[in-house]
Amino acid sequence: MKVTHALGIEGARTATGVVVVIDVLRAFSVSAYALAGGARECLLVPTVEEARALAAQTPDAVVSAEVDTLPVEGIAISNSPTQITHADLRGRTLVQRTSAGTPVISAVREGHDIYAASLVVARATAEACLLRDPDEVTLVASAAFPEDLACALYIGLLIEGTSDAATVEKLLRPLYASERYRRFASGDWPGFPKTDLDLALIPDRFDFAMPATRDPRCVRLVMQSAS
Questions:
Q1: What is the pTM of this model?
Q2: Are residues 163 and 127 in contact, defined by beta-carbon separation less than 8 angstroms?
């Protein structure tokens, strides 16, 4: 199985084989915690306007949105795993808009098997890819952020069978050394509680993958057991 690495919207547009789109901080960590908390599905859209419109058309919908990592006025839940874990999503639909993950996954061409991924579902995503036994897997980091690049490398190593738990800490060292991490860890970034880092950076927290399917209005994520 050939493992290819790609980046951003252009990488998503040109991806081949099974496509895994990665956003660790925080879109697809939010999706994972929502599904683990009982959400029926997550609907991903590229813009805030689309998120509001889709939520208005979807019974029992909850919206999670941010723009440039900042909360959106009038939307109570930002792109925050912490806020998602405190919300009652049982049997409900989460509509998501983010600045990186949701536009990137929306850019993947039709005809591909697609997964949304983050560190909390990394191993389960690798196992789901292996079960499909494709000729090629493209791992798309949503942005050139150290955590997305680390997660892509980790999933690639898991697919190749050459990784263990200690690998993640080593791969995340560039994140921990970055100004980006220091800003978020300060705890005073709007809509980004420090606990989001704690929740999003737990490798293999959940034993399910998140396959994505296209709808005319959005990309739909559900929970899929890795076994």
A1: 0.96
A2: no
Could you give the domains of the chain? 2-225 (3.90.1560.10)
Q: What ranges make up the beta strands (E) of 108-181?
A: 114-117, 136-141
Quick one: pLDDT band at residue 194, thresholds 50, 70, 90?
Answer: very high
Q: Are 27 and 142 in contact (CB under 8 A)?
A: yes
Cα angle 34, 84, 6 (rounded to 5 degrees) comes to 60
Structural contact between residues 74 and 105, judged by C-beta atoms closer than 8 angstroms? no
Q: Beta 136-141 vs 41-44: how paired, if at all?
A: unpaired
* Cα angle, residue 3 at apex, residues 222 and 167 outer, rounded to 5°: 80
66's CB contacts (< 8 A; 6+ apart) are 72, 78, 79, 97, 98, 99, 191
Residue 16 to residues 46, 111, 177, Cα–Cα distance (Å): 21, 10, 33
Query: Over the stretch 92-102, which tens digit does the pLDDT of each residue have?
Result: 999 999 999 99
Q: How far apart are CA 84 and CA 58, in angstroms?
A: 18
* Cα–Cα distance, 87 to 107 (Å, whole number): 29
Burial of 185 per CB tally in 10 Å (0-12, 13-18, 19+)? middle
139 neighbors 5 (Cβ within 8 angstroms) = yes
